[in-house]
What we know:
By secondary structure, this protein is an alpha/beta fold. It is about 45% helix and about 10% strand. It has helices at about 5-10, 35-50, 55-60, 80-85, 95-105, 130-150, 160-165, 170-175, 190-195, 200-220, and strands at about 65, 75, 115, 150-155, 180, 185-190. About 40% of the residues are buried. Mean pLDDT is about 90; it is low at about 1-5 and about 10-30. The structure holds uracil (URA).
Amino acid sequence: MRPRDLHRYLNDVGWADSPVPPEGPPAVRNAGTQSAAGTLDVLRESAEGCGLCRLSEKRRSVVFGEGHSDAPLMFVGEAPGAEEDRTGRPFVGQAGKLLDAMIFAMGFDRSGVYIANVVKCRPPGNRDPEEDEMAACAEFLDRQIELIKPRVLVALGKPASHRLTGTAKAMGALRGRWASYRGIPLMPVFHPAYLLRQPKLKREAWADLKLVMERLESASTD
Ligand code: URA
């Protein structure tokens, strides 16, 4: 099924309520480089021992990130929620189900992309991460991106978009417009949790993801 047909299919079945997509062939460029995967493991271990900010005090898990170490596409969300803190995996709650559907509609599955957050530990009560918490965690995300070297980055929601674009503009002004993070094309997209509250905006999110798909297609024929 082509991605656009997939989207029609997902809309027919109700995008928001889509179950975790079935496993498909991972849309990966090539096998992960051992060195990137190995260095990511070292970085993960260092995050697991991190006590740089107050979020480390109450965490159950460090939610480092997961996916392919050589992924062409990397999603950056905000921070782990309760379910992520419990399982140690990013985007496994309700918003994660919608993110899975978005990834599937783009022709990927989780094993072919990489998913991380701006902060790796859960902020209490699911509040937004604070500036000093994002700064304390910055090195982990910067290194993850540097190692994975995605062809395209997608920032999910405001904290990730602000952190990666270095601006504080409203999401309405950022979404759908290409930005760049250290030379990597970056697309800010509404956060899946926001889309669950504002389902009408899924149309805009899908338009933005189509731009990402086009960019990935053109990058793969370069
Ligand atoms: N789960 C995550 O891992 N990140 C978010 O931003 C939201 C939910």
